[in-house]
Design brief:
InterPro entries: E_motif, PPR_At4g14850-like_plant, PPR_rpt, TPR-like_helical_dom_sf
Protein name: Pentacotripeptide-repeat region of PRORP domain-containing protein
Helix content: over 70%
Family: Belongs to the PPR family. PCMP-E subfamily.
Number of strands: 0
Shape: elongated
Largest sheet: none
CATH superfamily of the domain at 506-636: Tetratricopeptide repeat domain
PPR repeats: 68-102, 133-167, 232-262, 276-310, 338-368, 369-403, 470-504
CATH class of the domain at 506-636: Mainly Alpha
Strand content: under 5%
Keywords: Repeat
Length: 649
DNA sequence: GTAGGGTTAG
């Protein structure tokens, strides 16, 4: 079978040889094809594409004097992988001769792009194909399945001349992507023979749908022991990882222990069903997710066969617990760190706030990928170095790396931090043109618009979300209304959210209490605060007390606010004292203002805000001597007046 | 160089 395949592909190559012979006078063309410049270039091209270096690949492609169908297909495949369908299509249209692979590639490209327009074009091209093979049918079936069009997927499944396991897997995965567990299992049961890859597809989909018990049952039923299934261990690995994701370490371990280990007896190599490196890595990942670094490390040290994934998993574990010493040590020890290892280290350094070192690592990377860029940009954003983040964002585009939704989400947060509505709007346009917005993108857009004062735009984004809005989306919009002073809208939205059975979080209540503060609703504020504790079982945090202080203070109930500060179960932070000081300023209560300002200065000795506020209070009351003494005190303490605070109110 | 399925980074 294998040799027949080789013979056939040789023949295809030979058929294309006359073009090569035109310029290369060689005695035996068949012999020389492997070492021919064309074949060498094709290999180089596919290597570049495989490692994600698309612009270098394109340069090579453009410089090639001779190209065959494989050359064109490789380049198209590169663009399809990166969802650059317009570029892929251009090459497809330009290429002199197309084979069935070229057609399959372009059809798969359209189906993997988001949006019904692309799906329709993919289908149109499928209908136009001069000939179709099994791959063509499977491409379209899985394309429809991934786009939620199970009606079409099933129609084509029934229309195709002959099914293979891939056809079934595509349908099973499609059902499970839509959460249709019953149909997926039912379809699986109609299969004439249970290929282990189908079992794997079913189990991984069930895991995604949280159906772990069902998955375990099916695995017991279909995959008991060594019954000749070549890749049975894949299915076990999937379930181990699934248990790990949901924190069921014991169940995962029990499954792991069921898989025979080479060490158990002398059967290495003979047994098909045995632990492989992925089993070890998945089990290790379970411990990592559970925060059990000791067990993870123990497993790592016991592993005979090590790969980069094992190293990377353990590195990411140390990164998660912020132990950068151990993470860097592993990074230095590992034989050949790959882009994932670098990304983990950069992410860890950025999380610790060590941006310079993170940037240093980033610049020393042999090859960056999209995630490297996203990691470093997110790091700059989280550490509030917005200018740096923007600079990296433009560098990234100059280097031909296309931003995806993770990049965009980060830079939208940057525009929020800069309160730059112009930038935010530009990014919003880029989102509309390039990605299907998901929850994080929409949330960052809502936050950006409301922080920039464009509450109407925030509301538009919120209302245009077709699919499910998660609790963060609701929080963002309620928070937007609250900080904008639109208390009625905030409270109305909160009511709607509860009616839709979206469970509020402590953040929701911070916004709700803020809305009450803006609207002067003291009673309502207390009612919501009690409801948070009694109806939703949410522990109050210091932020909630800060809001209550704000509510009381704004209404002039300054003594009540002070009493609350003295009796609350937290050490008051700067938000609490800030709320009190602001209220004292409005209600001209110098006595309590001094208490609040004093506390604030202790908490943040370098901040000029409390000084300036006190100064303005005295000035307003005409107590110029006191005002002056505040200014002198500030000078003595060497506090610099920050931008944004004015001596004149 | 194309379709489905297992572990690691944003």
């Amino acid at each position: 079978m294998a040799s027949l395949y080789v013979r056939l592909s040789r023949r295809n190559i030979v058929e294309q040889l006359p073009r090569i012979r035109c310029c290369h006078v060689s005695a035996s063309p068949t012999h020389n094809y492997n070492s021919s410049p064309l074949n060498q270039s094709n290999k180089k091209l596919s290597n570049l594409i495989r490692s994600g270096r698309i612009s270098e690949a394109r340069t090579l492609f453009d410089s090639m004097k001779r190209r065959d169908t494989v050359t064109w297909n490789s380049m198209i495949s590169g663009y399809v992988q990166r969802r650059e369908i317009a570029r892929a299509r251009q090459l497809f249209d330009e290429m002199p001769r197309r084979d069935v692979v070229s057609w399959n590639l372009i059809v798969s490209g359209y189906f993997s792009c988001c949006g019904s327009r692309f799906v329709e074009e993919g289908r149109r091209l499928f209908e136009l194909m001069p000939q179709r093979d099994c791959v063509s049918w499977n491409t379209v079936i899985s394309g429809y399945a991934k786009n939620g069009r199970m009606d079409q997927a099933l129609k084509l499944f029934n229309a195709m001349p002959e099914h293979n396991a891939v056809s079934y897997n595509a349908v099973i995965t499609g059902f499970l992507l839509n959460g249709d567990v019953e149909s997926a299992v039912g379809f699986f049961r109609t299969m004439p023979e249970h290929d282990s890859t189908s079992l794997c597809a079913l189990i991984s989909g069930l895991v995604r749908n949280g159906e772990l018990d069902l998955a375990a049952g099916i695995l017991r039923e279909c995959g008991n022991g060594d019954d000749g299934k070549d890749d049975l261990v894949h299915a076990y690995n999937t379930l181990i990882a699934g248990y790990g994701q949901r924190g069921h370490v014991e169940e995962a371990r029990r499954l792991f222990d069921v898989i025979p280990d080479d060490d158990d007896d002398g059967n290495e190599g003979k047994r098909r069903f045995r632990r492989n490196v992925v089993s070890w890595n998945s089990m290790m990942m379970c411990y990592v997710k559970a925060g059990d670094i000791v067990f993870a490390r123990e497993l790592f040290d016991r592993m005979v066969e090590r790969d980069n994934c094992s190293w990377n998993t353990l590195i990411s574990c140390y990164v998660q617990i912020s132990n950068m010493e151990e993470a860097s040590k592993l990074f230095r020890e590992m034989p050949s760190p790959d882009v994932l290892s670098w990304n983990s280290i950069i992410s860890g350094l950025a999380q610790k706030g060590d941006l310079n070192l993170a940037k240093d690592f980033f610049e020393r990377m042999p090859h960056k990928n999209l995630i490297s860029w996203n990691t470093i940009i997110a790091g700059y954003e989280k550490n509030e170095d917005y200018k740096g983040a923007i600079k990296l964002f433009s560098e990234m585009q100059l280097e031909g790396e296309r931003p995806d939704k993770h990049t965009l989400s980060s830079v939208i947060s940057v525009s929020t931090g800069l309160v730059d509505l112009y930038l935010g709007k530009q990014l919003h346009q880029l989102v509309t043109k390039t990605v299907l917005p998901d929850s994080p993108i929409n949330n960052s857009l809502i936050t950006m618009y409301s922080r920039c004062g464009a509450i109407v735009d925030a509301c538009t984004v919120f209302n245009e979300i077709k699919l499910y809005k998660d609790v963060i989306t609701w929080n963002a919009m309620i928070g937007g209304y609250a900080s904008h002073g639109s208390a009625a809208e905030a409270l109305e939205l909160f009511k709607l959210m509860k009616r839709l059975k979206i469970h509020p979080t402590y953040i929701t209540f911070i916004s709700v209490l803020n809305a009450c503060a803006h609207a002067g609703l003291v009673e309502e504020g207390w009612r919501q605060f009690k409801s948070m504790i009694n109806d939703y079982g949410i522990e109050p945090r210091v932020e909630h007390f800060a809001s209550l202080v704000d509510i009381l203070g704004r209404q002039g109930q300054l003594q009540e606010a002070m009493d609350l500060i003295n009796t609350m179960p937290f050490k008051p932070d700067k938000a609490v004292w800030g709320a009190l000081l602001g209220a004292c300023r409005v209600h001209n209560n110098v006595e309590l203002a001094l208490v609040a300002a004093d506390a604030l200065i202790r908490l943040e000795p370098e901040s000029s805000a409390p000084y300036v506020l006190l100064y303005n209070m005295y000035a307003n009351l005409g107590q110029w001597d006191d005002a002056e003494s505040v200014r002198v005190l500030m000078e003595e303490k060497n506090v610099k007046k920050q931008a944004g605070y004015s001596w004149v109110d």
